[in-house]
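subagent[fold] <- orchestrator: predict structure for attached chain, return tokens only, no commentary.
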Amino acid sequence: MSEKVLDRVIGQVRETALLQTSLAVLEWDERTGLPSSAGAYRAEQITLLSGLIHRRKTDPRLGEWLAELKESELANDPSSPQGATVARLHKDFERNTKLPVDLVKAISKAIVLGQQAWERARKADDWSQFESHMQAIFSLRRQQAERLREPEGTLYDALLDEYEEGARARELTRVFAQLRDDLVALVQELADAGDPPRGESWRPRMSLERQRAISRWIAEQIGYDFRRGRLDETSHPFCATLGPHDCRILTRFQEDFFPSGFYGTLHEAGHGLYEQGLPTEWFGLPPGTYASLGVHESQSRMWENFVGRSQAFWKWCFPHVQSMGDHAWDAMTADEVYRDANRVQPSLIRVEADEVTYNLHILIRFEIEQELIGGSLRVADAPDAWNQRYRDYLDVEPPSARDGILQDVHWSAGLVGYFPTYALGNLYAAQLMKAANQQLGDMDLALASGEFQPLLDWLRKHVHAYGFCMHPKDLIEQASQAPLDAGALTEYLRAKLLPIYGK
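subagent[fold] -> orchestrator:
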């Protein structure tokens, strides 16, 4: 009998996934080619679909089926595909039924309008064009958090849990504080070095056509399957999954700054590899869903940084890019490019930050959005708070809103509680790479030969295959054989960077 009830639940959820992926197509189109005057109608489309999806997720029949399954033998093993499906869907149902459909629709509409306003404000470098939209989005997210808040948690915890199940701001603050102290000390140590990389190899102009070809090539080399995906361009890189065999990655290019497109592609392809590695037979259900955004980010950071900024990688990659790159690197060497790929310098833009200072960018956002949700900071004062923290943490001064509070799409997209998963991704990636090196042997020999399959196979086995059948913290601890800690990331950075800087 339980199997029949589970079949009903799976059928219901898979139909809902059809609507969700249709919604994802509209959102992908909005970010890639929507005419500027079409935003209002697109908001109506997305609002309607969001309401239909929420009604299906809160269907009383679904609740009755899940309650029955929670008491059945299928729930005995929550790490099995069937047990995880019951446990995760039951938790989602409980969460969704706390949110009235009018609030869900209001959030969806505010997000679409907010993203359109953010695009205009960023282009015009005018915070005032986005301020009221951000006020509306944070107000709605606060209402959501008030309905979802657990007795022992904070409003921010309620939002954070949506992206990183079980994570709590207090624990993240403790881990991030240790990481911050370690990284600030490392930045100072590198600043005192006598022979820092200059970054010159990244600045020669390279045509966008050449960069597009190189980006597609490198995504293919690490294993991204273009039969099940595509590479497009947008103002803010992202990855979108529109179906079990349709995972799309997007990046952006600059003629005078090669890393923007190249590392943006490696990063998003890392996300794509994770999506393409999930069990397709369970698409739309927990076993076919990523474990958390922190785990997702660990996969993108693995390929962007731990692979893509390694000396072994550039030993292999350099001659290929040199031959494909419009003679832009004819006067360069692989060692110069490797050193420049690992230049550490405090900067304004998060997505172009080096590995060391990147987490300070995240800490700034983590603190500000907690204060906004908690009410101790007004939206009107957020730009000043942003600029002050950049002065305090990175010793840089944003010259404009475009390079300051308007640089990220996340708050316009309603993604409050999302930012800390980036720092978690870096920590997870360090632990996973350390474990992969221990189990596979030194990965440098493989990377120097352009052999990426052993690492991808290891990630498929230890991370991708589990989908969302395990708590993210447990998944990483099992794969890396170590609890969450800042030490692995700090150890990796020091081992790589100190020799580059002659220390």
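orchestrator: received. Logging for downstream: The radius of gyration is 23 Å. The chain has a mean pLDDT of 95.
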